[in-house]
Amino acid sequence: MTKPDKKQMKSAARLYAVQALFQMEASGQTVEAIRREFETHRFGAVYDGDEMAEGDVDHFRAVVDHAVNFQAMIDQMTDRALVAKWPIDRIDPVIRALFRAAGAELTQMVTPPKVSINEYVDVAKAFFPEGKESKFVNAVLDHMAREAKPEAFPA
Prior knowledge:
By secondary structure, the protein is mainly α.
């Protein structure tokens, strides 16, 4: 297998970050325990002959840490992007984890908003290949990005 490039490694890190945030919420494990598990047992691991993607560890850590440290702010931003009758606690837990990861990038990292949106829409498609979730994710992330980095969206 050829060594993945930096873009592929960041894409894998985003997917792992969403999985890690979901697992933290579902299991109640600490961020340190989840980070250790993913970095030790997921990045580049081989399961039943299938090789897991190599991820950008620094990007993974940054997304997860920012999502945890700024979760209240990110959740409030997500709530503002959602219809009033659908607060974030009623959203599918995988999509909630995705919004938190994307929100971390949109608010705390230098990734261009359009890159973050495209990357996390791709993550949504990986989890929900046949559903309408990717369009929903795109709409919510677009709203969040415009709030977080309005300068990236000239009128």
